[in-house]
Design a protein that fits this description.
630 residues, alpha+beta, 9-stranded mixed sheet, 5-stranded antiparallel sheet, 38 strands, disordered N terminus, Hint_dom_sf, Hint domain-containing protein, Hint_dom_N, signal
Amino acid sequence: MRSPSKMMLAMMLAALGAGCSQQRQAPEDSRAMAQYYAQWQQSLHAQSKKGGANAQMPIELSDEVQYRFVKNRLKAAGLNAQNAPRLFARLEEIRSRGKQAAGVSGLGGTTQGAWCGHMIPLGGVGRDVAQARFQGTGLTSCFNGSDYAFVDLNAFITDGARMVFEPVGSESYEEYGGKVLETAPLSLSLPRLAGKELLADSLAIAFNEVTGQEHLTYTSVTATLHPPVGEGDILVDHPRELLDETPSDQAIRICLERGSAEGFLDCDYGAVRVLPDGGWKPFAGAATGIAAVDVEASKAFALDGGTPTWIPDRSAYWEPEVKPFDPTRFQVPTRGKFVPHVLEECQVTKVTSKVAAILLDTGGLCEAGGTPGTTVAQGELPFKPSTAPGEFPFDGIMDFGTGNCLNNAQNVRLEIWVYAEGTCPDPFGGEPEPFRCPSKAEVQPVDYKRGCLAEGTQVTRADGKAVPVEQVKVGDTLLANGKGLALTVTTVHRGGERKPLVKLRDDHGGEVQVTDTHPLVTVARGVVPAGELKVGEAVLTRAGARKLVAVERVPYEGRVYNFSLGTPEELAHVGLESRSLYANGFLVGDSQLQAELEKQKRLDAREVLARLHGAWHEDFRLSRARLTRK
């Protein structure tokens, strides 16, 4: 075998030296960032703002230490100015702006109302008395996606003074044109040692060239390693899928303004009005809260040939803390308990939580318990006073605001993270040992349903007769197109609407009022949500193509209705586009066509983002080349 050349030996030694240097630098960088993070947390508390573990801190590239941290983290992931030129150029741009605007806080990111969210879903696993076991990921998600995003997770064994940093594991991940970015799970099994802690930290970077948005944040979580802290259980009773008989529709469906009242029931939770006489009315105006469906009662109602009807479960009902109940906000009822596993002699003194509603289709995170419409998770579980030793119950409504969580049938993942803190006696009689332990749980997918026709709208039955939407029943047949196709009504959806409706008028005087997401069939663009229609556009009606002469928003306070059309036998020979009906003569889609339209729209958006901005093409090509070499 030929001996390696001097040049090859030099390259090998240089690579080994770089690796050793990198291993030495990672602890130094994380030690410095831990100090910055502690100072940042103190500044938040001084301003009476929320902080704590797993809060995302903006990174200032104008600061030499933070700049070094970012570059070394990227280097550890195999990225440099040669194989990721656009990424490093953008970082230099931010750094240059930071130097020119010294003292400006939050360059590269914000902590509230941010474009991207960033957190570490880390939890203890198992109850091994000799080993502390954890599993977690680094996660970032940007609303409407990014051209480029990077996230990592690094773990260290450290001491209470944050002087010793021993690396024990790392993961990183980058993606082009993505929305939800998460590293592979990092699983750790560490010896339980008094005075030692696990510190996990994460860097997140994202850029969108079209909007000019940029994101650069750091977050961190710690957990003690000494006994007797074990795995904590987050036991979630609600929300969960209650109507789980349809394999094709496995979402936990929350119907706040309107829902499936008769026929095929697909609302696990719905808005309910409790009447003064003690009666309960679902999907009605002036709702007082949210109830789960009573599955057994609803099934029993359908016995002897009756139609299944949505009946609320009186034992699973929630009212909001702030009244009156507002069904235009994305609200999730939750009930369960957190059980931290510690020895009896230990005392839990503080339990905090964070709930992220991650938008799986569009990207971004909703906020619970904060400013409506923002995109960064700051939510908390609604904890109640403990009723049993060692248990922390939660029961109430989490309010995620009026923003981007409200897309119809959009999949949402609830990431629940609980942090328990307390003290355990020192077995040698010294001061009590403090402990901190994270736990996590996921609930997915959760979605929301909307889109309907105004009360009084005339729909056309199979026999050609027009009847008001409120008179249509499960089992009726409606005319689906101009070729005589008729489809059976399998579900009746009803409810209220507080937002303005879209009022359409054609050049022959025809008018219809629908919610802004309700689909209409156009001549040129096919199926389009009503809110996107323009004056002059041609739509299909029972009398043929008609041009729109007016598209306006009008206030509305009445009830709204929608239908699911087609039995399995009827739908076996028709396409999805045939799931339509005539509303005041306009050809509109049913609830299933609407859901598919919005899903396809989100898929199209992903495809557009996949066709990256030209500035990132070279980085993308080099990234593919790196993966090929691996």
